[in-house]
Amino acid sequence: MSFFVKQNSIVRTIWGRHDTVLFIFGGASAEFALNKAVDWLYFTGRLPADPIGRLFSTVTYARKIVFSPEQVALQVIDRMRAIHGEVENKRNATIPDWAYRDVLFMLIHYSIASFELLERKLAEDEKEEVFRTFYRVGDRMGLKELPLNYNDWLNAREQHLNSNLQKSKYTKDLFKQYKKHLGPLRYQILVQAQILVIPERVRSLLNFKRSSWLKPFVPVYKITRKLKIDWYLISGLLPTQYREEIKALNVV
């Protein structure tokens, strides 16, 4: 059986651990809030009503693509495009291509940053493999002006960060909703986790501190991983309604 992502791919390793996926989710949630096209996510009202659930659904779609047979993965991508098309029809406008590219670029960046935080530095060919996986997703969705390799992506990513982000009323509201749905303690942990993986441009726009008080705990957490007791630590920090879903992310 042919899979969209090869079974020995570094991409499966990255997306096969719940803690790595949580950092991907956390970092993306910060950058999502700054995107100039975030109003599209407010159009249906679902994002502010359930920001954790909506962002988690994006992660779920990505994981389905990573771990599914090729034909199933292609169907998932086509369904994603169709869902966005339905929203466009309701609003009688078109989501700009750069907004779709931004989401792909986030998945690439946070996949690499989160893995390197919790595991090790990736080799250049492994970074290329991460890029290539999400390039294929974007290509299937019909996106234009996609960079053709990882090095080109680095330049495009920098341009997107400088051109497509802004702190707006949606930024403030979305972080307000994060705090409301997570509670004060979990919200503070989220922010500290975001600082560990977000680019400097995102940190600056959000006025976050340069250092996170979580950083000294990362080596300690890695030890709990080796002892296979990390889940007991993580589960206590998660909202109850998401614990089983997040635990199920662990497949490696």
Q: Give the tally of β-strands.
A: 0
Into which percentage range does the β-strand content fall?
under 5%
Give me the strand/helix succession: HHHHHHHHHHHHHHH
Low-confidence stretches: none
The number of helices is 15
For the record, give the distance between the C-alpha atoms at the N and C termini, rounded to a whole number.
20 Å
Q: State the helical fraction.
A: over 70%
Task: Please state the structural category.
Answer: mainly alpha
Integer count of domains: 1
Alpha-carbon Rg, integer: 17 Å
Specify the biggest β-sheet. none
Mean pLDDT: 89
Molecular shape = globular
Protein name: DUF2236 domain-containing protein
InterPro entries: MPAB/Lcp_cat_dom (IPR018713)
Pfam families: MPAB_Lcp_cat
